[in-house]
Amino acid sequence: MSLSMTENEITLAIIQALKEGKRKQFQDILEELHPYDIARQYEHLPNKHKNKFLVFLTIEQLTDLIQELETEDQLEVIQKMGIEKSSKVLDMMENDDLASLLTDLDPEQIEELLGEMKQEESAVVQNMMTYPPETAGRVMNNRYVWIPKYYTIREAIAKLKHFAEIAQYLNYLYVIDDEKKLVGVISYKDLLLGSIDDRIEDVMFNRVVKADVLTDQEEVAKLISRYNFVSLPIVQEDDTLVGVVTVDDVIDIFIQEANEDIEKLSASGKSIDFKTNPFVAAYRRLPWLILLLFIGLVSGSIISNFEDTLQSVVALAFFMPLIAGMTGNTGTQSLAVVVRGLVSEDLEFKQVLKLIVRELWVGIIIGITCSILIAIIAFVWRGSFPLGLVVGSSLLLTLIIGTLAGTIIPLVLYKFKIDPAVASGPLITTINDILSLLIYFGIATAFISKLT
Amino acid sequence: MSLSMTENEITLAIIQALKEGKRKQFQDILEELHPYDIARQYEHLPNKHKNKFLVFLTIEQLTDLIQELETEDQLEVIQKMGIEKSSKVLDMMENDDLASLLTDLDPEQIEELLGEMKQEESAVVQNMMTYPPETAGRVMNNRYVWIPKYYTIREAIAKLKHFAEIAQYLNYLYVIDDEKKLVGVISYKDLLLGSIDDRIEDVMFNRVVKADVLTDQEEVAKLISRYNFVSLPIVQEDDTLVGVVTVDDVIDIFIQEANEDIEKLSASGKSIDFKTNPFVAAYRRLPWLILLLFIGLVSGSIISNFEDTLQSVVALAFFMPLIAGMTGNTGTQSLAVVVRGLVSEDLEFKQVLKLIVRELWVGIIIGITCSILIAIIAFVWRGSFPLGLVVGSSLLLTLIIGTLAGTIIPLVLYKFKIDPAVASGPLITTINDILSLLIYFGIATAFISKLT
């Protein structure tokens, strides 16, 4: 195949080969493609050629392909392959990919698929599914090489060579004792540089960084990225080695966690992507909107309590959206700083205090700046000095309180092990809306004689 | 060192060794620690022990340590080490870490540091600094192994062994021709499984996935994560191999990009973390807040244009925060879906149309649901059927428009290569605020005779 072929030219060549039934020619094209590229080709292929495409693939290629597809397409391919091929493919699939495919299916489909597999393979996956979602046990895989501690470097290299096909990353070998307990780790680099007859237990690294099967996936991702590992061994309570989490999973975990933070901060509802159908998307977004609707009613009833004040000075309504909006925004700013800060740092009590004092100062600085500005504008616009004073002093107070609420509430939630990002939609917005209106109309009512 | 020692016990043992001046004992403790652990120990050490700690470290350990520290601490360590040691450490540092240290310094400090280094090392880093920030050229490093295409597998393994110390990940070797052009890649796995006298160019993979030095770092990160690579070769325009970007950098890039998205969506200002001082943090947050203040004034002046309507039906003010808030929120929801969707997918025109139609339907569904709800509530609360109708129909219209604005505006920005996340603060909020108030008071004014 020519190296300079574009993706489209490759597609045309593939269709040509499929039409003419030339499997050799088809395989020549595929040889230089990565699994990701093969999956893209499959996705873009006209439907009428898809069956033939699958027939021409080897079991290894089918496995690679299926691991790169989205759940919907995976199921389509499994169905098209037929029982015999698909059972072989499922056996060869990486455990974590298979577990994540099964997560999205209903129990009947799971049983049917697992039934097609070899018992030892399906047992591994079924075991993984018993761990809670988003834990190490759920995302780990078994593409690693372990060696007994009594091996020599020579024996280790021989075993490594033998398992090169299954181990995705060859950077470390994990060392276990007679009871399968993890006792050490040795890098491939150390194998290369050591002398051939050294015993592994004499040259291995004893203090292994590892994680328990029940560790939260985000913690595992943090460990791997801090230590710059390509894989982290996962052990059971008794230190038995049961799997590894690899760096490619870490990238997915970080993207997933960042998306979750954004979903919560923007109250946009769980897992909506470009392919979600409108009814599902609306259904997922509605709870937040309806909650916000009732929050809006609370604000409305506060305003209605100040109906007399408002009736006598309608101009107060002009500054309402401004004050509520600014308070909400400074709260969201603080919230975002706290939520993202917690992704990379673990907070100690001393730092928490420092952070709150910092945000108090931020609130005071932005409060003073914005309130002087709005007081002058209100005075110039409406020609009323008292109005300027009421609007300015309200904004000063609400900005300080909004900033602190946006800082303290997520920290308290974090302390109680509740995801602080949850705070955004309901809590921060409600509290800041209600407080800002109460302060604004409270101050205005106190000075009502000066305003009219 | 005992394996069961906690971090605190290790700290105590380190202080003990430092006090007694026992370097051997100190090194025994450090032997089992990873660079990340050593950096944490250094950070937590009382100030009076830090100098001795640095004296006891080898140049390799100092290099590892400095690469794990934050800029401020890096500079402190460089100063404490003195010229002679620090020039050696700078020479040994990884290019990308050094470049990122230099990015945060002023020109004088950069010159001083580069002056201490070997010329060939400083030339490499200075060259990296000529690429724009957030491009492949800026984050690449030279911890990879290349081989000429005429090598045999035997020669390749010999070279690999020789360079094992510098190559961080040993998964692939890059193959170049006589002009240093990248012509192929071979995985370590293939070296292990091939026969020892095969020529590299006969067994290598010809179709190399690579990126140009000027590629955006986010694109590079996408490529690496899609293909599950541990490193991606970076080439100049003429295909000369100049570096690799490795998977650990990809994790940092994804975290950085997610943080940038959140900063922009929450309008929280650039790079504020737990350590930013309050004046800097306030200074970075203020521009958005002042912009929002003026946007609030625009809303205020719209309301003031409907002063007569508001004067005759003060109850209209009660629903103002609700309508503006809901419209803003549905816009932010759509925006978040679009911004995060674009992280993992490249949109084609057909999909864009589909997405807009999808969001139109979402807007209609949530619009109908919420407007029926609010119409009933408004009617029951205020006992006015026309008021319920005005509030309900306004909300229906504003929710549909808000949803579409939150979808279309970021897509248009994306099309014109402007980061769509920027849209949040100023654009979506302004447009939705202004439109919702215009619609609400417009409808109310039209039915004013029924409302009073």
UniProtKB/TrEMBL annotation, chains A, B:
Q: Which residues form the CBS domain?
A: 140-203, 204-262
Q: What domain of life?
A: Bacteria
Subcellular compartments: Cell membrane; Membrane
Is Membrane included in the keywords of this UniProt record?
yes
Kindly state which keywords UniProt assigns to this record, in alphabetical order.
CBS domain, Cell membrane, Magnesium, Membrane, Metal-binding, Transmembrane, Transmembrane helix, Transport
NCBIfam families referenced in this protein's UniProt entry, alphabetically? mgtE (TIGR00400)
What's the stated role of this polypeptide?
Acts as a magnesium transporter.
The protein depicted here goes by the name Magnesium transporter MgtE
Origin organism is: Aciduricibacillus chroicocephali
